[in-house]
Amino acid sequence: MAIICREHRLLFLMAPRTGCTAVGSVLMEELGGEWLPAEDILDKKGQFLVQKKHSTLNQLLKHKIISQQERSGLTTFTAVRNPFDSLVSLYFKMHRGYQGELSDPNSWVHKVPGYADDLRIIRELTFDQWLNRFYPDLPFYLKNKTANAIRRSGKLVLGRQSHVEDAFVHGVDFVMKFENLQQDFSHVLKMAGIRNPPVIPMINTTDARSEKDYRALYTPKTRRKVEVYKEGVLREFEYEF
User: What is the pTM of this model?
Assistant: First the structure.
């Protein structure tokens, strides 16, 4: 989903694992924000077309939840996070945090194609095993360090829910960095004419995450895989291991 603050002409796209719940709470409680869409939009199979919490600008426009004319009058923003850190957070959310959702047939995990299956699989996997499963070995490309060659080959297989950055940052006016969230958020609000930007609270942290230093979980092999698969994000936003 997104949050729109019509008075301040702001549209916030809630990219997963970037502090979006905390930012959204500020927009909703202090700046007149509204959910966009107000409810999940599902297809005939009961799966997400547009998710209430995590929707991209393209989805909002495609399904006519917002018009191009209205979008042109808004400052649209989202956030990114270091992929190395974000993947560790995703692993612990899936491995521990979301497992209880499987027993609820109405849970969102059953509305994302294949996600419930991924949750069942990940229960038995270490972080290293999971990353190697969803980021297949590409010996030639890894050896030659050519992410562009992977794209040209058409053989790039992406793990579900781990490749969200491109979709959320596409078409936005400003991208905040999770590692600098308060400062970037304040910058966006000041651009919108808000003189005293509120403080972002600590909400929805990954409590199930036992390893705080993401570097400790990577091997040379998995580090190199992320460097190849996430090459664009790492380069564009100047992230490093």
Answer: 0.81
